Backbone:
């Protein structure tokens, strides 16, 4: 009976305190005056009993928030932990509490305080994943009217989602298909204003979802390509002086490559490159030319026949421009490797297009064969250039082989780590150079005939890619280097790949 009496007394006291709080002119002082222990007790009791006083719910929220910002760490931590109780029996408060916790992520300074916010958010995510994610992503998506006001909160919420939510996707995203679709839609809304690093992070996460997994239908894979196309600004008129757009375009093309392999269409990228980029190729920054050609080479295997026919004239024009006619002229061997590879893969899908472009005689029975026209001058010019490149590649191959012998001797004689590192870089460049020249020679050989054969498979392993171990004995020349994307050529070039992408939009959020 004593216990029942005590409970009754507590409830009576609480009603009395509630009436006092309702009548108080300065309600903010009601729970803030007193010692740290008093405040901690208040932070514990307000959320525990607030449901019994529906008319004072707003005051209770305000009071708890006041305690969440108290100068004493212990009071703040207790108040943060108490926030969970506001939606334990009243789930309609959940979005409001998640919103408050999102703001507290930005304010939390001490580790114990930050951990309290993290734990509270994880509890609410498990209670209602859809509502909680929707509220959190509100900060990631941002408010276009007040971009700077929530920037600090956005960064902290984004880090929380990346570090705490994404790794637990299998546990949290249930029902799986429904919630994977929901978070995909939220991410799409978040991509209007992101840095390159953020975009890569989001795309890596989307790729990890079963929704877009290995067995996903082509239309879902295409959905990811369309997201990348949006970042590449393929609807924007190209300006060759816009270095940011060039970097972004090349990096997005690189990011889309795995999805082309899975069956997604490369048409929009290819058509944009053909219409806007290749006509001004010579005006591109020198370090980006090779990046573009490398990515286009890797993409060429997956260009459909109709797009191949449209793109091939631009590639032949570039190829002729860079295949020098005199052996004394300077030549970029990496350019030639890329362009020959692209040429082979496009021509393999539309062989009769080479009749007018290169003077070949390939009969398909279609009017586009144009066999009745004389393109002998085109054939003479093209084959002369091929012979010159053949001779230059063989000469360079000999020079590089001799150079590697000298580098091996120098390595044996090197005494310091600095000397050894310099020689290692030289050997790496020579190795890639040997692979480049071998590839050029292998691709030129079948083009000498008037009715050539075009390589349309993966027999040629591009010099900057890791060599694929064959299932049967292979006569492939020099072994490759894993992860090496810096091509060998007459002049140094920049690296391509996702490294460039991280920097292309670091300052875009300021625009």
Residues:
């Amino acid at each position: 009976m004593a216990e029942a009496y005590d409970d009754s007394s507590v409830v009576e006291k609480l009603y009395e305190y509630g009436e006092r709080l309702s009548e108080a002119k300065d309600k903010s002082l009601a729970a803030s005056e007193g010692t740290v222990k008093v405040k901690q007790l208040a932070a514990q009791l307000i959320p525990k009993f607030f449901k019994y006083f529906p008319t004072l719910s707003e005051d209770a929220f305000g009071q708890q928030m006041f305690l969440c910002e108290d100068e004493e760490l212990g009071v703040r931590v207790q108040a943060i932990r108490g926030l969970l109780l506001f939606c334990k029996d009243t789930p309609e408060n959940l979005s409001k509490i998640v919103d408050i916790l999102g703001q507290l992520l930005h304010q939390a300074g001490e580790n114990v305080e930050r951990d309290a916010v993290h734990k509270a958010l994880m509890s609410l995510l498990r209670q209602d994943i859809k509502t909680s994610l929707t509220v959190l992503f509100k900060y990631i998506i941002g408010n276009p009217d007040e971009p700077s006001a929530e920037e600090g909160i956005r960064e902290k919420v984004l880090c929380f989602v990346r570090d705490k939510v994404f790794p637990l996707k299998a546990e949290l995203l249930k029902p799986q298909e429904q919630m994977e679709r929901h978070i995909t839609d939220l991410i799409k809304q978040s991509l209007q204003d992101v840095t390159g690093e953020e975009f890569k992070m989001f795309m890596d996460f989307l790729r990890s979802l079963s929704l877009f997994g290995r067995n996903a239908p082509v239309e879902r894979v295409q959905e990811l390509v369309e997201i990348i196309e949006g970042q590449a600004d393929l609807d924007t008129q190209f300006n060759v002086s816009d270095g940011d757009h060039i970097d972004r375009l090349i990096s997005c093309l690189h990011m889309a490559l795995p999805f082309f392999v899975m069956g997604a269409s490369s048409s929009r990228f290819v058509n944009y490159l053909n219409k806007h980029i290749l006509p001004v190729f010579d005006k591109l920054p020198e370090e980006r030319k090779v990046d573009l050609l490398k990515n286009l080479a890797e993409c060429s295997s997956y260009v459909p026949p109709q797009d191949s026919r449209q793109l091939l004239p631009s590639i032949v024009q570039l190829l002729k421009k860079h295949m020098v006619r005199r052996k004394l002229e300077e030549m970029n061997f990496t350019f030639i490797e890329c362009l020959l590879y692209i040429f082979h893969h496009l021509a393999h899908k539309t062989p009769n297009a080479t009749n007018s472009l290169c003077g070949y005689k390939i009969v398909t029975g279609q009017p586009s064969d144009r066999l009745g026209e004389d393109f002998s001058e085109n054939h003479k010019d093209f084959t002369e250039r091929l012979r010159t490149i053949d001779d230059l590649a063989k000469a360079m191959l000999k020079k590089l082989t001799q150079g590697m012998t000298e580098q091996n001797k120098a390595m044996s004689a090197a005494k310091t780590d600095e000397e050894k590192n310099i020689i290692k870089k030289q050997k790496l460049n020579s190795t890639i150079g040997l692979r480049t020249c071998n590839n050029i020679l292998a691709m030129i050989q079948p083009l000498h005939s008037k009715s050539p054969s075009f390589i349309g498979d993966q027999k040629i392993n591009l010099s900057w890619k890791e060599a694929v171990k064959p299932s049967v004995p292979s006569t492939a020349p020099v072994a490759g280097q894993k992860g090496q994307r810096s091509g060998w050529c007459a002049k140094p070039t920049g690296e391509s790949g996702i490294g460039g992408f991280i920097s292309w939009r670091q300052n875009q959020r300021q625009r």
Notes: The first helix runs from residue 2 to 23.
